[in-house]
């Protein structure tokens, strides 16, 4: 099963912002959402309404954590997330960088009192998504080694999982799968004992700095 940050780390109160920014939730029925023919400003206004409503629910949940188990609250947040993701994809074409910029714009305009919380949730979501991608890479590398009897070499790197030679099937679906949530390549290192390590360079994109995110198997 493909690892999802929502499964591993995020509770109900964060799911809307995570889905809006990173496309974690699967698109579902978007009844009630503006149609693709409507102006972008109308769609952004609707996103603003959804975001404000979601933050209001988040505040309620933080004050009363028992609400996380309330089926009605869970259903409401799922519905908000599905509609928000659909609108975000229409406005950005699914580009994660554009989605992040869109989220920044929407929260600043429609829910400025929640902006700092939004920034922290977004960074936490990116960290969790990066860990999730490294989990999937580990699985793909293990499959590669099982089938071929060896690891991808340091020179081949993780690209061989996306673009294998000949007519062989890829182990991962695209190049985004070997990048972290900031768009930086996941650092793959073959160790002297015949094993491998994975690491995200973190928000600054520089390997070997304090914000690196090593993957713990």
Walkthrough of the structure:
This protein is mostly helical. It contains 7 helices and 3 strands; from the N terminus they run αααααααβββ. The protein is elongated, with a radius of gyration of 19 Å. The two termini are 16 Å apart. The N terminus is likely disordered.
Number of helices: 7
The tally of strands reads 3
Shape: elongated
Secondary-structure element sequence? HHHHHHHEEE
Q: How would a textbook summarize the main sheet?
A: 3 strands, antiparallel
Structural class: mainly alpha
Radius of gyration: 19 Å
Unreliable residue runs: 1-16, 19-35
pLDDT averaged over residues: 82
State which percent range the strand residues make up: 5-15%
In helices, the fraction of residues equals 40-55%
Q: How widely separated are the two ends?
A: 16 Å
Task: Count up the domains.
Answer: 2
Summarize the structure.
By secondary structure, the chain is mainly alpha-helical.
What descriptors fit this protein?
single chain; 217 residues; mainly alpha; Glycoprotein, Type 4 Pilin; 3-stranded antiparallel beta sheet; 7 helices; 3 strands; elongated
SSE blueprint:
Blueprint: H1 5-8, H2 15-22, H3 40-63, H4 71-92, H5 96-110, H6 115-148, H7 159-162, E1 187-190, E2 196-200, E3 213-214
Antiparallel strand pairs: 1-2, 2-3
Helix pairs in contact: 2-4, 2-5, 2-6, 3-4, 3-5, 4-5, 5-6
